[in-house]
Give the backbone structure.
Amino acid sequence: MIALIMAGGAGTRFWPLSRKNFPKQFLRVLGDLSLLQMTVKRLLPRFSFADIYIVTAANQIELIKQQLPELPIQNIIIEPFGMNTAPCIALSVEYLKRLYHPQEALFILPADHIIREGEKFLDILKPAEIEAQKGYLITFGIVPLYPTTGYGYIEAGKEIAPGVREVLQFKEKPDQQTAELFLAQKNYYWNSGMFCWTLQTISQAFEVWLPEASNIVSEIGNKWQNEGLDTDIASLYAKMPHLPIDIGIMEKADNRGVIPVTFDWSDVGSWKAVADLTEKDKEGNYFSCCGKALSATNNYMATNKFTALIGVHDLCLIETDDAILLCNKDMAEDVKNIVNFLQQQNRQDLL
């Protein structure tokens, strides 16, 4: 089995710390390691560096070299620019199938998840590999702990193998009432964004369900073959359908399986998620530097200055040299709208 880490995202919901040239996956938001380094460390008991590949945008290559000097340079798959998960997976599979047997199992995962139970995480790979070798497209569903509207869901059907269930359908992020219904029915799981399949199975799925992408990466593969891996593929790649793999492939395919898992997992999708994962004082406050809270609770303060809090609750404060973000935790997802505003104003200095 080989592993592919998707690390090309922009991380706009982590502004102002996450920037175009230093996005979320390279940040050390929870300890001494970046999210990408934590992801690789999680894989190492099962995979060697030779079997770990990272797909990323061209402008992030140097960051990967700095943070992962042990990774062979040929194990970095370069997107000319960030797209969505279907294009980046199609490009990566085209790259990998020239190096490996078609029946090689491929485990795909994002670079920015937090999983604290490493052994339980690696345990899911064995049944995934077995079913992948049978021709299934395997995904992993997190057993929900509460009815959240922040994740997509997977509806599971009957068991098709020990610990593996058929996928009935994918559900977009629900409203609160629907999320509560999903939790009560006990056959809905959070969509983790992790997958396992063989190179042959996913190649065939692209040919059937997303032929436009399949044709384009075939052209790219021919260019690599004739002109070398350094050839410019940007004009071809720009034609790829801008779709997530869930919509492009998984919602359409019929050979799908889901493995329900119970390890401690977070996709760290916003500053609120970071705040929830961070150790706090007895009033629920966190100070990255130092501070004092008076009648203030559940605040996350990421600043390099002494911070005094009086009578405020459920806030995130993020400070950099050139910007300050102050938001209610429950509106932390809207940080991406600030980035959109800055793009409209052409504030490249803040992006």
About this structure: The chain has two domains: 2-266, 271-350. The chain has a mean pLDDT of 94. The radius of gyration is 21 Å.
